[in-house]
Amino acid sequence: MTQNEFLNIVMPFKDKVFRLAKRLLVSTEEAEDATQEVLLKLWRNKGKIGEYKNVEAFSMTMTKNFCFDKLKSKQAQNLKIVHSNYEEKSTPLQKQVELNDSVSWVERIIEELPEQQRMIIQLRDIEEYDFDEIAKMLDMNNTAVRVALSRARKTIRERLTNTHNYGIK
Question: Are 122 and 137 in contact (CB under 8 A)?
Answer without folding.
Answer: no
